[in-house]
């Protein structure tokens, strides 16, 4: 089996904007450890990202400062956004290294509102699920009901989320059916002592100052989350590594001192679940590398919590692939026609909503396309033998979408319905040049393009988080008619 590194961040940012350098939060290599490898995936879950009712439409169209900041850091390191999801103040971002993109299958997002009896999204959960190298994975970010005395509401929140989150992939229609589940967020469980023996906030803080070698067992035995996991009322299906860091809530903003208006509590958690024996002769595992808080971040009244896991997946697992033929010549803007080919493996089923997009060579998100074409009008040849690959010849008039010199890629997106996507193939970079001012061939990694598509500016890192699930591109004015045929 192969091992992939997943790095998780959960942080209630308390409606604040980024005000500190986030490199250490992401555990980037430093001058003292320059050879440390980066994770394969970053999963970032934020709560209380600033969101106001009058700005909900704008929130859905443009990214927030947190998304922009994380993208500037991670895209510079070669990561792209596999999927993002936002529900008011909840935000979930999944970044992947480029080499894993064509192994992402059945990407889908879901959400559940639990605020105001399910009417409002200030509380609730968002999730992103996908298959990766033959294993199914579900990532959940949540913000549950607050306040120490509302334990029953948090339990109800959990069970509502489990019941309402449903996915289109039959084998993993429920969160708990996935091989791997990682549940992160501000779960809001507090420390809860028996009546008559409950210490004050000041007494808890004094106890914390006396803790030696990160041993918090005396306080954690009063943790509400661990209690309901034991009783089976909520999260009993999940595990949590040993907590060896102090409570992450509530701090005075801008400092490291607890705000004694609330009892210090471990509200911010990262839980996991593995179906270890879901496959014959294979044991799935998620091995913890680190689970800790980041105390030097002071912009919020919460401290961020991070975890790194080594996750086992099948080695050399491939299915449903599309290979693009090399493009050896320069594509000139204004040419009447440009042809290339891609080959579909025998197990690729062409769905009505499948499409091929043109992207910048250094694209930052799977939603960051320039132009595209559905494969709906392509008829597969009746002469193709069963189990044999098929070759598609594509014809894209350059002027319809690519109007700026630079380097670009084709990406094949399988979309069996409006909510589920798979990435089946990505071409090598190819050059688009101006006839009047021909470019000298350069490394596309050194000179990224700055292309634009008709009617809009090219998306930047701050504009790439609109969720295009369910997009009906046939209704968009920039949809153009191209010619695709099967050889």
TrEMBL record:
Inositol polyphosphate-related phosphatase domain ranges (all copies): 2-317
Highest taxon in the source lineage: Eukaryota
UniProt region (Disordered), positions on chain: 443-463
Record-stated family: Belongs to the inositol 1,4,5-trisphosphate 5-phosphatase type II family.
PANTHER family named among the record's database cross-references: INOSITOL 5-PHOSPHATASE (PTHR11200), LD06095P (PTHR11200:SF275)
Name of the protein: Inositol polyphosphate-related phosphatase domain-containing protein
């Amino acid at each position: 089996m192969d091992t992939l590194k997943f790095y998780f961040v959960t942080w209630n940012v308390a409606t604040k904007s980024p005000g500190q350098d986030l490199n250490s939060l992401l555990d980037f290599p430093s001058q003292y450890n320059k050879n440390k490898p980066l994770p394969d995936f970053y999963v970032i879950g934020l709560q209380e990202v600033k969101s106001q009712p009058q700005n909900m439409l704008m929130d859905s169209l443009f990214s927030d400062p947190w998304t922009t900041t994380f993208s500037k850091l991670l895209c510079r390191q070669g990561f792209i956004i596999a999927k993002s999801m936002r529900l008011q103040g909840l935000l979930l971002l999944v970044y992947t290294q480029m080499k894993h993109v064509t192994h992402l299958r059945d990407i889908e997002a879901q959400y559940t509102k639990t605020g105001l009896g399910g009417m409002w999204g200030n509380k609730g959960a968002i999730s992103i699920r996908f298959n990766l190298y033959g294993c199914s994975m579900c990532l959940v970010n949540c913000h549950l009901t607050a306040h120490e005395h509302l334990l029953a509401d948090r339990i109800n929140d959990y069970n509502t989320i489990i019941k309402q989150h449903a996915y289109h992939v039959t084998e993993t229609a429920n969160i708990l059916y996935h091989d791997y589940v990682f549940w992160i967020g501000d779960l809001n469980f507090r420390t809860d002592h028996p009546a008559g023996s409950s210490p004050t906030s000041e007494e808890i803080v004094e106890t914390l100052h006396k803790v030696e070698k990160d041993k918090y067992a005396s306080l954690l035995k009063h943790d509400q989350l661990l209690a309901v996991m034991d009783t089976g009322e909520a999260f009993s299906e999940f595990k949590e590594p040993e907590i060896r860091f102090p409570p992450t809530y509530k701090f005075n903003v801008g400092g490291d001192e607890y705000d004694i208006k609330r009892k210090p509590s471990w509200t911010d958690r990262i839980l996991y679940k593995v179906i270890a024996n879901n496959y014959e002769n294979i044991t799935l595992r998620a091995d913890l590398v680190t689970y800790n808080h980041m105390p030097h971040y002071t912009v919020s009244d919460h401290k961020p919590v991070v975890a790194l896991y080594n996750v086992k997946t099948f080695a050399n697992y491939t299915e449903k692939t599309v290979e693009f033929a090399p493009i050896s010549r320069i594509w000139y803007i204004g040419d009447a026609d440009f042809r290339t080919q891609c080959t579909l493996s025998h197990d690729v089923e062409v769905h009505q909503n499948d499409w091929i997009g043109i992207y910048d060579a250094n694209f930052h998100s799977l939603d960051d396309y320039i132009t595209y074409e559905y494969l709906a009008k392509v008829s597969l040849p009746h002469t193709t033998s069963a189990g044999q690959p098929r070759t598609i010849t594509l014809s894209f008039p350059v002027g319809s979408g690519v109007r700026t010199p630079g380097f670009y890629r084709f990406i094949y997106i399988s979309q069996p319905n409006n909510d589920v996507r798979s990435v089946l193939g990505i071409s090598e970079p190819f050059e688009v040049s101006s006839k009047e001012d021909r470019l000298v061939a350069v490394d596309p990694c050194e000179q990224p393009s700055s292309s634009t598509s008709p009617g809009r500016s090219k998306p930047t890192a701050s504009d790439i988080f609109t969720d295009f699930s369910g997009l009906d591109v046939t209704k968009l004015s920039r949809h153009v008619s191209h010619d695709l045929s099967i050889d």
